[in-house]
Structures are given as C-alpha cells and as structure tokens.
Amino acid sequence: MYKSYSMELAGRMLTIDVDRVCAQSNGAVLMHYGDTTVLSTCTASEKPRDGIDFFPLSVEYEEKMYAVGKFPGGFKKREGRASDNAILTARVIDRPMRPLFPKDYRNDVLLNNTVLSVDQDASPELLAMLGSALATSISDVPFDGPCATTQVGMIAGEFILNPGNGEKAVSDLLLTVASTKEKVIMIEAGANELPEEKMIEAIYLAHETNQQIIGFFESIIAECGKEKHSYESSAIPEAVFEKMKSVVSPEEMEKAVFTDEKQERDANISALSERLVEAFQDDEEALAILPDAIYQYEKKTVRKMILKDHKRPDGRAINEIRPLESEVDVLPRVHGSAMFKRGQTQILNITTLAPLSEVQKVEGMNEFETEKRYLHQYNFPGYSVGEAKASRGPGRREIGHGALAEKALIPVLPPVEEFPYAIRSVSETMESNGSTSMASTCASCMSLMAAGVPIRKPVAGISCGLVTGDSDDEYLVLTDIQGLEDFFGDMDFKVTGTRDGITAIQMDIKIHGLTRPIVEEAIKRAREARLFIMDGVMKDAIAEPRKELSPYAPKIITLQIETDKIGDVIGKQGKTITAIIDETGAKIDIDDSGMVSISGIDLAALERAKEIILSIVNDIEPGQILEGTVVRMMNFGAFVQLSPTKDGMVHISKLSDKRVNEVEDVVHIGDKVRVKVIEVDKMGRINLSMRPQDLAE
C-alpha cells in the first residue's frame, strides 16, 4: 500500500505518492501538481567508480510526447535526442543538488525525471526539480537535503508564484530559486530589465515559499526516509598533504599560481607536479591519488591567498575587471560581427539575418512556444583552452551558455512588426579563462548593433565569484572571476542587464547556500561592472545600432493582405506565386494571417514583387492608370495582363487617338504598356484605353 501526501502550493494542490512505483530504485516519488504528473527517481551504484576524482552525478529530464497527447515528430515516431528545454531543465536540477552530496562520494548517482502528463498551468520542470530533491532525500543515498524550488513571474508589477505557461508568455520575470532550509542555493532568471531591488525581493519571496515546501518534505522524510548507507571515502589523507608540503612548500605553491597568464601557471604547476611524483615514487597508494592531492593543495593555496591575504592570482584588486578590448566588423561579408576580450577570455560573435520563414520550429510540451525567432548559439572548441580535442557537437554546457546569452538579449530586441527578421547569433570561443558566457553576451550585443538590428539598449554581463571561510560572516566576493577562481572558489554568479535593470541571472555554487548579504553584494557588484563595460570598450567600439543593414543581408518588405486573398496570390497549384518569384527572384512567404514577407538582396526586385501582389489583391476600379503586358491580340483589340490573375482588353478604337487598321500596327505581344481603366462591367470584364487623352485625364 503506497502513501500519499498533499499540500496547497500557490493555489494548486501538490500531491506526492511514495512507494507506489519503482520499488527497486533507491528512492522514487510520483509527483502531481494540478494535472501535471512527473516520476522522479534516484538510483546509485553499489560501489564507487574506480579511477575518478569527481562525483559522478547524472541528471535526466525526459519529455514524453504522450504527456500532451501528441505523436513525436520524425520518421520513427519515438522520442529521440533530448530537446534544448530538457537539457536546460536537467542542468537546473543538477545545480542545487550537486553541492548537497558528500564531496568525497564516488558512487554513480542517476536522477531521472519522466514527464507523464502535462497541465499547461502547472510546470513539469518545477515538479521535476521538487521530485528529484525529495526522491534523493528519502533514499539511502547520502544527501544533505532536502532542498526546494519555486518559480516566480511578474505581470503588471505583481509577483506570481509558480506561473503557468500562459502567464509565463506575458510575464516580465521568469525566476527560479532553489533553497535549503537556511540559504539560497541556486538562481536562474530571465527578466525584462528588472531593477536590482525588485529582483532581490522576488528571490526572497521564492526563498520564503521554499521553506514551506521543505517543511512539508521533512514530514514525508521522517515517515518514509531510508537510513543513509555508508560509503568508502575518497578524501586525501592528511599525511599525504604533510609530505607534499615538505617537498613543495606553501610559499612555492603560492608563487607558482600567482600569475595572470594561464599558460605560465599551468607550466609552473606541471613542474611542481613532477617533483611531487618523484617524491612519492615508492608509495603506489599515494601515487594513485596524487593528481587529486595536487589539485586540493593548489585549491587550498588559492583560497587562503584570496580570503586571508586579499590577493588574487593575477594580482588584481577584489573589484577590478581584467583588461578589456572590443571591436566590430571583424569579418567581411557576414551581416554583423564583433570581438570582445576580457583578459584571456575572447569571443568572436557573428550575426546572421534571415526572413521569418527561417525561424526555428519548436516541438515540445509548451503549447505557447512553437517557434523561436532569435537564436543564440555558443561553441567551445578545444583550441580555446589549448586542448587537442575534436568537436563532437554542442554538449550540455554549450547549450546552457548559449541559452543564457540568448535570455540576456531577448528583452532589448525590436518587435517583429518593426524588424521582420529571424536572427541568429553565434559565439565562437577563441580563448577561455573564465566567464565566456558573459563575454558572449557583450560580443553578441555589439554584433547585433553592427548588423543594424535596432536593439533598444546595450546589454553587458559579468560574473562574480566567492570564497568563504568557516562562518557565514567570513567571505569575499570577487568581481570578474577567471578560470582558477571559478574552479577553486565557491560561486559563479552571472548577471546580465542594461543600464536600467537585469535581463538574466545564473548562479552556480559549490557550498550549501548563500546568505542574503552575499546575494545582495554580488548583484550590486555585477551592476557596477556591467556599467563600466558598457560605458567603456563597448561604447568605444559601437555606440548604437547602425541605421543601415549590411549590403549582404537580405532586404525584407512586408505587407498585410486580406486572408480571403491568400489563395489569389498563391494561385492554383502555386502557379501564381511561382510566376512572381520567377520574374523577380524574390523569396515570398505568406502566413495564415495574411502577412506577406518579400525578401531578397535586390530592393528593386522586392518592390516589383510587392507591386504585383498588390495588383492581385487590390480591386480594379475605373479611372486607375496601370502598367501591364500585352499577352494576346485579336482583330478587335489587345488583351493586357494587369496582374497574374487579371487581364483587361483594349479595343482597337482605344489603342490610339488616330485610326488603327490593324492591332499589330500599335502593339505586339510582350510589349509593356500604360493603360487606363475605363470600365469594369457586371461580369467583371475590364475595359482599358491607351489613348493619350484618356491617360492624361
């Protein structure tokens, strides 16, 4: 007999079934929120994985299309590769969970979330986050939980807890906050230039709600939780550290890491490692764990330097940004390009414009998001960190970084009515030493402006780090962290925004949460830094969007026609629209609302295509003077094509102001002529005149 528990959460009932399914997993819960149902499981291996120096946690979020009553797309009609949304959701689940597992735990752990049913008013992503935390907490897997997650939206200035998809579509804020019982442990946000004070208010509204959920979870754990199993610790013995210090003194290690050049630091550590390997040559057991021990020694040295001595490895002040460089128009022929460099982090961004027919179609569970007009894609090749690593396509990290930069810029993009283009922004990592996603935000902003995309305001981003001590009051927030400070520090707090507010946040930490003073200081530091970047190198490179598009970018003309005229423009079996395309070389797309998009490089050709379409959809009325082509001749007159679907007849008596004996004396097939509409009779026949006196009237 299974147990069921319920609580009201943000106006809906959250119901959790324990011991109903998946009895052979370490922990499993069937989560219900509204009509959304998600199965969350936690499974661990019996033994640690050999030969690794990290905790092997995997998180999966599986979208089953039957959950929304659909067949999967594609030939096989079976779910295939995870969607970007599924990958991003798995990352958001991973980030607050990972710090709560023991650092010396080496057993494989898989958190699996399967979406079984979807109610558009109740987020399956949120339910998977809650389910993963609870399934792990009631399992026998060591875990310092529970944690809980709440989403916050904002419509007309009012906060909404756990908004549905319809509310998210019109919300000025999409915030996800995970908390432990005491602290905030993860933040993910996209916002429409939300002021810093309002963002902090939203974060702690979510944190308060999380405390209610944690209390509910604790009652379930008390009744259903299993005893945590013991495990073989992989912690480095203190004796190994003591021997290492006798070979390489703390002063030598500090000198090795104290440089602003990543390659020089790597070389220094490599030289020290060779000495340590030689010293431990006769101790096979210690030699096996030496790489991890060296890492831990270096980490302790860097953290002590920063927290106790206020010395950063590259010598910068605590709030100092690395040297900045930027330029635009790096590449010829592309529609827009920009380079942004911060220290040893360098991003080249390229913008490409296309007709709206090129928007990305989205197949997923959200009925309110069926296509994406703006795409930001991020690439991280091996050469950016000096590795001989072949590309195997974007991984979860690349997809996550691209999504963050995309989220950062969406609020400042022009509406489709003002700028009828699909936009693709690609960030190529040229060199990496920390915070490439924030460099991508800066580079893509400049690239968009260089391409002539009329963004409303510039956007910049920065990442702040953290080193903590033994108490909550002992900490140091670092502005613009480099790779070493990210690896050995406790936080990567990324914030993007305009001068007027925040557009995106992504916070990752390695400790059990942040106090409110740390959150507030990080947000304050990020604002100071992004204003410095925007008002400095970005403004110097390009101050505002260009007024003209690149000559290599497609030109687009749009017009609205009546929906009952769409068939006239397309024609039987598409013959009419094909004829227009053949004549003008333009690309023509018509949507169901009657919006016509005409695109191409030659503006004159686009205007001609527009003229033809208007001639089809507009009614012919007496008195109009039009241009047409002679397409047929009879002994009594000539037929002139006014549009692909409309012909008129010029009687022989109307061909000239003089007597005409033969039609061929005045016109021939293929001639372009100006005519005046004299009459449209009851049968719709159009009578025309070419007489000068009629054309002059």
From TrEMBL:
It is found in: Cytoplasm. Keywords: Cytoplasm, Magnesium, Metal-binding, Nucleotidyltransferase, RNA-binding, Transferase. Its EC number is 2.7.7.8. SMART domains: KH, S1. Its main location: cytoplasm. Pfam families: KH_1, PNPase, RNase_PH, RNase_PH_C, S1. One of its GO terms (molecular function) is polyribonucleotide nucleotidyltransferase activity. One of its GO terms (biological process) is mRNA catabolic process. It catalyses: RNA(n+1) + phosphate = RNA(n) + a ribonucleoside 5'-diphosphate. Involved in mRNA degradation. Catalyzes the phosphorolysis of single-stranded polyribonucleotides processively in the 3'- to 5'-direction. This is Polyribonucleotide nucleotidyltransferase. It comes from Oribacterium parvum ACB1.
